[in-house]
Amino acid sequence: MAMPVVVRRARAGGSLSVPRPVDPPWESVRELYRVLRGITREALRPHGLLLSEYLALALCAPGPVPLKSLTRALDVTPAATTDLARRLQRRRLIRLEPHPTDRRSRLAVLTEPGRRLLGEAKGAQRKALRELGARISPTAREGLLGGVAELLQVLEERTGDA
Predict the structure, then answer these.
(1) Contact at 8 Å (CB) between 94 and 109?
(2) Quick check: is 117 in a domain?
(3) Which pTM was predicted?
(4) CA-CA distances (angstroms) from residue 74 to 31, 57, 84?
(5) How would you classify residue 92: left for phi > 0, otherwise alpha for psi between -120 and 50, otherwise beta?
(6) What mean pLDDT value characterizes the chain?
(7) What CATH number did the domain enclosing 51 receive?
(8) What share of the chain is helix, strand, coil (3-state, %, to 5)?
(9) Does position 131 have pLDDT exceeding 80, yes or no?
């Protein structure tokens, strides 16, 4: 059986590098993640948002979120979360409010300008990903979705929190 390969786009000049064997499928998953993050970053750039800022706004959309929860969800340090929250607050995209039951904690609350910007950025990100999806065959898209769903199910069974 032939060994799968990953073709990487070189950073300078945009040329393709020589395919090389990988540890399937994990290297391919990591490469896909890297590329999708780049596509998302590009889609967010015209909206003046970094990926971490976009993710924080999205986490705040359903309702107030304790900063500790943002720290865990974004997998960053408390200091990085504080820095992120202050940037978003300065831009009036969130408000920081005292936690009703924990005096030491604060809640990040999405403002109306933050909700509008999140909607615009989410639309741009989805459009970029739809355009990417349209470039692969329906059969490949279905296979990808099925494989990812099965992998997530296995991971959830294994860890309980995929």
Answers:
(1) yes
(2) yes
(3) 0.76
(4) 20, 11, 11
(5) left
(6) 86
(7) 1.10.10.10
(8) 60, 10, 30
(9) yes
